[in-house]
User: Which sequence fits this backbone?
């Protein structure tokens, strides 16, 4: 099916056998208005300064599939320092992987410099192969080398807007047509050097409904235990992408059946296999998240997003009547250290959970002293309640009650002089 969608839209215009590079000209170029305007500004500016620059990654994969991209990644020959000289609103972030963030008000465009594999000739020597885990990935290279060090073939397509061409070093367009997820290079090495790619493969599979090719699947299964060494901060980033991706339920199902949660987040593992209570709550929150529009999911605050995991975790341990702040924080501590949720964020989430509980308590509905309704976290707590209400008639009723009550109270306040 995917094949037919893409088949008619390009002509092969150039093939370099030595470099294994093929340029495809799109008969119908990707529309400029499908790209983020700020990302286009960055693209044009870098070209004005005679740097090589391409759109790459998920945005090209998604646009070719007729999907709306979540973000627009730009890769260039300019070094981070050169980029910062061109854009005054730019800042270099990251350590393991340097990225330049260019700020446009509250919006950010991320630019990376072409990199190459950190291993000489693409494979580690005997000394290096003792520990393949990559702690840094900042050796700059050419566009071809950059394509080869990316994760999956369908994520390594460059797009040149000016020339209207897709530049493909890894036969990614073919895999996109055939609906295949294939790790670039030796799959065993590529999963061992960065086990987070295992989560990325399963996320892609859940989102696009593509097949993981057998060699990649075998290597994935072989390397699952290595996820215990993945940096918690990177797990958090991927987890947030999964939650915002629109297929979080499917993805969690795949992660759970591969036993991955038992390694990266034992609380979630326990909850997922509970058919009632916390298990049901987590599943219904994921369904709730997936049924939001992409725009809405993208704009959800980090605390609200992560509450979909944290609320079921606290619920797992909750005893009737105990709703204290300390209790919540304590129960969240293991998950927080597994996926590196900051102390400040845990505090915020724990407050949110408590307000959310108060909203659910029938006695507060008729009560005069509704102090918690003046909390600045109330809109976020309502958002969490709404997420649960998508699949729960009782919570739907409670949510509607508060919506009406608050509209009434706010209406009264607005009409007072
Ligand atoms: P999404 O739609 O979630 O943004 P994406 O594929 O664009 O999907 P990003 O995290 O935005 O994912 O990464 C951008 C690109 O960077 C990827 O498409 C891929 O080419 C490359 N990349 C990201 N993570 C890795 C990794 N762990 N190893 C190698 N390449 C990676
Ligand atoms: Mg992306």
Assistant:
């Amino acid at each position: 099916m995917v094949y037919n969608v893409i088949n008619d839209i390009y002509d092969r215009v150039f093939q370099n056998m030595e470099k294994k590079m093929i340029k495809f000209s799109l008969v119908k170029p990707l529309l400029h208005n499908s790209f983020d305007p700020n990302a286009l500004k960055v693209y044009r500016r870098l070209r004005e300064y005679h740097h090589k620059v391409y759109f790459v990654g998920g945005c090209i994969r998604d646009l070719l599939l007729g999907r709306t991209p979540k973000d627009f990644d730009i890769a260039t020959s300019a070094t981070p320092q050169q980029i910062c000289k061109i854009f005054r609103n730019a800042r270099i972030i990251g350590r393991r992987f340097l990225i330049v963030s260019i700020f446009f008000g509250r919006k950010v465009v991320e630019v990376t410099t072409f990199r190459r594999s950190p291993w000489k000739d693409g494979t580690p020597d005997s000394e290096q192969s003792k520990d393949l885990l990559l702690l840094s990935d900042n050796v700059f290279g050419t566009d071809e080398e950059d394509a080869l060090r990316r994760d999956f073939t369908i994520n390594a397509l460059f797009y040149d807007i000016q020339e209207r061409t897709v530049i493909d070093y890894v036969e990614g367009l073919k895999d996109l047509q055939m609906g295949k997820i294939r790790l670039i290079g030796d799959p065993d090495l590529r999963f061992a050097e960065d086990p987070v790619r295992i989560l990325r493969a399963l996320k892609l599979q859940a989102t696009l409904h593509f097949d993981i090719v057998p060699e990649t699947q075998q290597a994935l299964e072989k390397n699952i235990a290595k996820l215990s060494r993945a940096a918690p901060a990177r797990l958090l980033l991927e987890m947030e992408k999964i939650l915002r991706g629109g297929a979080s339920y499917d993805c969690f199902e795949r992660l759970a059946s591969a036993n991955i949660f038992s390694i990266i987040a034992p609380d979630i593992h326990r909850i997922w296999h509970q058919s009632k209570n916390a298990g049901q709550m987590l599943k219904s929150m994921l369904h709730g998240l997936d049924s939001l529009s992409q725009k809405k999911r993208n704009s959800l605050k980090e605390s609200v997003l992560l509450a979909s995991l944290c609320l079921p975790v606290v619920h797992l341990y909750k005893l009737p009547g105990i709703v204290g702040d300390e209790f919540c924080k304590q129960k969240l501590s293991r998950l927080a250290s597994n996926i590196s949720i900051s102390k400040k964020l845990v505090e915020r989430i724990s407050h949110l959970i408590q307000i959310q509980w108060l909203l659910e308590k029938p006695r507060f509905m008729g009560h005069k002293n509704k102090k918690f309704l003046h909390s600045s976290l109330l809109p976020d707590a309502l958002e969490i309640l709404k997420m649960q209400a998508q699949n729960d008639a009782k919570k739907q009723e409670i949510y509607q009650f508060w919506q009406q009550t608050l509209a009434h109270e706010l209406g009264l306040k607005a009409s007072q002089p």
